[in-house]
Design goal:
Elements: H1 6-13, H2 21-30, H3 37-42, H4 44-49, E1 52-60, E2 63-70, E3 79-88, E4 91-101, E5 109-112, E6 116-120, E7 126-131, E8 143-150, E9 154-160, E10 166-168, E11 171-176, E12 188-193, E13 197-199, E14 204-209, E15 230-235, E16 253-254, E17 266-269, E18 272-279, E19 282-283, E20 286-287, E21 290-299, E22 302-312, E23 326-329, E24 332-335, E25 345-348, E26 357-359, E27 365-366, H5 368-371, E28 379-385, E29 388-396, H6 399-402, E30 408-413, E31 419-424, E32 429-433, E33 442-446, E34 450-455, E35 461-463, E36 486-489
Parallel strand pairs: 25-27, 26-28
Antiparallel strand pairs: 1-2, 2-3, 3-4, 5-6, 6-7, 8-9, 9-14, 10-13, 11-12, 11-15, 15-16, 17-18, 18-21, 19-20, 21-22, 22-36, 23-24, 24-25, 27-32, 28-29, 29-30, 30-31, 32-33, 33-34, 34-35
């Protein structure tokens, strides 16, 4: 038998399986589906026949982009979806998706650099950004928005910086305030643009817009002085004219420059923005509403998802529909107010100039985002409480052991001089708090039954006593106060 050279064998192993157009379209449509996978797949073939404008373009041997239109005849504004698919671990994976209303779809060309796909119009405007690593580009400033005050209407200045006309569809202008450090960011105006507005090249115009009604975000109905304001725009409704021409720009979202391209988000500081979504729901007379907060971090001139906080209902307590207040105090993000309606949470945000030390707080401090940063594959952290200090290591597992979801290894010094090693799944988080009220910081892995209790022995260490069979999850006389209502997903 003739043996193949090693180089030939390596080439065969690295060969990319070229997919069929049907398979690519199916994976693209399945991406982001909120329905049950099994039931959705049963009706998938029927759903595929209802799609319009399907186009599949090969970017490289390991990358494709799929475009299709969805909702024609069912939605007021049909949606155009662009999905980036990448070949990884012998399978094709959808990586990111950009959704544009059909009336905002001016995409004329694709620009691919091997990891990032840019969707651009015929005149060069950036309309979408898709990346294999899940990051997002800065929002372009083709149209600048400025809040000018409130006098019986919300005064917004819009400025077209392009050499082509800009058509603003009916939509919402949201005014945010309170972006200074330690300020509570929950005061907003929501104004409504009721008719299309066409801006000529380099035109500046003043808009007097009425407060919006009928949205789940209740607008402020009192005249007030606002400081540190900025404005976002989000299109909605039915456009008054057909598909846009190549020589005009029709934005769907207008964001400020230091924000991700495709999210209606609020800045926390120069390195972070957040995005809040409220999903009301009631089941069997109980409130099952969910508030979701997605935090994005800026690194290497792009925005990366840092984590997602999901706030669920506690027992029979009902959520308020108001925007959740938040306050950034130094490097710690406080979300929510203490009280019956919501459990506050403190999240440690990793900043480039922050030392790797964590000072214990009276309330549970979520350090997960700070641990899972992009800058280093392994880090040593220090937890301080007065004179007491303990160190621990946090590192990602090798890819061959991580399977589909990333997993991480946390290493803690034990009181007997050894080390505890615990594997974290992608859906677990790490809290620092005083669980057993002994005035020493503890580490809780949640959701799970694992708690590492602080010990002053050997200059700072942890112990983890085994729970007796068929008993409580935690030792007797332990006040487990850090389960909370928040969970972090990656």
């Amino acid at each position: 038998m003739r043996l193949l050279p090693l180089t030939v064998l390596c080439g065969l192993a690295a060969a990319v399986e070229q997919p069929s157009p049907e398979h690519l379209l199916q994976e693209a449509v399945m991406y982001g589906s909120s329905t049950d996978g099994a039931s959705y797949r049963r009706n998938l073939q029927q759903h595929l026949t209802e799609l319009n404008g399907v186009k599949i373009k090969k970017l490289a041997n390991n990358a494709y982009v799929v475009r299709y239109e969805e909702g024609a005849g069912k939605l007021l504004t049909p949606i155009v979806r662009y999905v980036l698919l990448n070949y990884h671990r012998e399978q094709w994976w959808p990586r990111q998706r950009v959704n544009l209303p059909l009336l905002c779809d001016n995409v004329a060309s694709y620009h691919w650099n091997g990891t990032v796909l840019q969707l651009r119009s015929a005149t060069g405007q950036l309309l979408g950004d898709l990346a294999i690593d899940g990051s997002s580009a800065d929002a372009p400033q083709y149209v600048q928005l400025r809040y000018q005050g409130f006098d019986d209407a919300v005064q917004i200045e819009v400025q077209n910086t392009l050499d082509i006309p800009v058509r603003l569809l009916p939509g919402l202008f949201v005014v945010y305030t309170g972006t200074e450090p330690s300020a509570e960011c929950n005061k907003i105006y929501i104004a409504k643009l009721q008719k299309e507005c066409v801006l000529h090249p380099h035109e500046t115009r003043q808009l007097a817009l009425p407060l919006s009604t009928g949205t789940f975000n209740s607008p402020q109905r009192v005249k007030q002085e606002l400081h540190g304001t900025y404005v976002n725009y989000l299109a909605f409704g039915t456009p008054d004219s057909p598909l846009p021409g190549a020589q005009e720009y029709v934005p769907f979202i207008i964001r400020q420059a230091d924000s991700p391209l495709s999210w209606t988000s609020a800045p926390l500081c120069p390195e972070y923005v957040w995005w809040l979504k409220y999903t009301p729901s009631h089941l069997s007379g109980f409130d099952s509403s969910v508030r979701t907060i997605q935090v994005w971090r800026r690194a290497n001139k792009r925005w990366y998802p840092a984590g997602t906080l999901s706030d669920s209902v506690l027992d029979k307590v009902r959520f308020s529909k108001e925007t959740m207040p938040y306050c950034l105090n130094g490097h710690i993000l406080h979300i929510g107010r203490p009280g019956q309606e919501q459990a506050p949470v403190a999240v440690l945000l990793p900043l480039p100039d922050r030392p790797r030390e964590i000072e214990a707080l009276p309330c549970p401090l979520d350090i997960t985002m700070c641990l899972r940063t992009l800058s280093s594959p392994q880090k040593t952290w220090h937890i301080r409480h007065g004179e007491w200090c303990a160190t621990f290591d946090f590192s990602p597992l090798p890819p061959e052991k991580a399977f589909r979801s990333p997993r991480f290894l946390i290493t803690l010094p034990s009181a007997d001089g050894g080390n505890y090693k615990h594997t974290l799944s992608s859906r677990q988080r790490v809290l620092v708090s005083d669980v057993n009220a002994d005035n020493l910081p503890d580490i809780t892995i949640t959701p799970s039954d694992v708690v590492f209790y602080g010990s002053a022995e050997r200059g700072g260490s942890f112990y983890s006593p085994p729970a007796p069979p068929r008993s409580t999850k935690y030792p007797p006389n332990t006040a487990h106060a850090c389960t909370g209502a928040f969970s972090v997903h990656f």
